[in-house]
Structure to design on (236 residues):
């Protein structure tokens, strides 16, 4: 079910509040907003709420036997990738960047925010369908720059179905095939990256793939490989 509202502060915050109030929001239910006045991205950033863009959230309830919750960022990235691909004349220009961005021609097209709420994970997704923000620290792009902007509601329906499929694969087949698929459409191995870690440390190295838990691997200048569990990743 996809429920739409004209405006709200944050679709993620709304679902978290419902869960905190004892409402077990069913998986497959989405909250989609025309406008967000307090949308959030990673690292506390404000999320751009351009009219005609997709801004929505859904919930995954974690169960015994599920893969690690943090890998839902990769699962969601694949779901968005599959949804966006038909709108791109040159699908090879699409690339996933660990852990939660979709790039088009090197510019940010989509962002994903995962927030834990007890035994559930709220997944927020923003996709630039009609307009892209002007950001000082990174390039951005909207699908409207390639052709007519996708209809937001049709896009929402396709994305909901895509995430349902990816969640079923995640639970049924585990991480290994999901990570292989992510690597096939993700940052090419040996790409220079800059990673701003949560403690403020900046690491510059080259992408060395993902480990079996979906953790980022970086190859340092001395050849050593370092695992990165969290951080803000930029193409160097």
């Amino acid at each position: 079910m996809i429920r739409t509202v004209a405006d709200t502060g944050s679709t993620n915050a709304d679902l978290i509040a419902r869960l905190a109030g004892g409402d077990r929001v069913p998986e497959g239910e989405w909250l989609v907003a025309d406008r967000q006045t307090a949308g959030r991205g990673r690292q506390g950033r404000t999320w751009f709420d351009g009219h005609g863009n997709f801004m929505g959230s859904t919930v995954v309830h974690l169960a015994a036997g599920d893969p690690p919750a943090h890998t839902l960022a990769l699962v969601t990235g694949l779901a968005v990738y599959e949804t966006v691909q038909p709108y791109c004349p040159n699908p090879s220009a699409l690339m996933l960047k660990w852990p939660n961005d979709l790039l088009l021609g090197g510019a940010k097209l989509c962002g994903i925010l995962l927030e834990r709420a007890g035994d559930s994970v709220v997944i927020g997704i923003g996709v630039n369908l009609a307009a892209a923000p002007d950001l000082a620290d990174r390039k951005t792009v909207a699908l409207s720059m390639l052709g007519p902007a996708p209809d937001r509601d049709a896009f929402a329906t396709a994305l909901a179905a895509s995430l349902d499929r990816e969640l079923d694969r995640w639970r049924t087949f585990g991480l290994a095939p999901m990570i292989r698929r992510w690597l096939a459409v993700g940052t090419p191995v040996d790409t220079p990256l800059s990673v701003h870690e949560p403690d403020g440390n900046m690491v510059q190295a080259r992408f060395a793939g993902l480990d079996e838990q979906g953790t980022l691997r970086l190859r340092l200048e001395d050849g050593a490989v370092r695992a990165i569990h969290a951080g803000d990743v930029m193409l160097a």
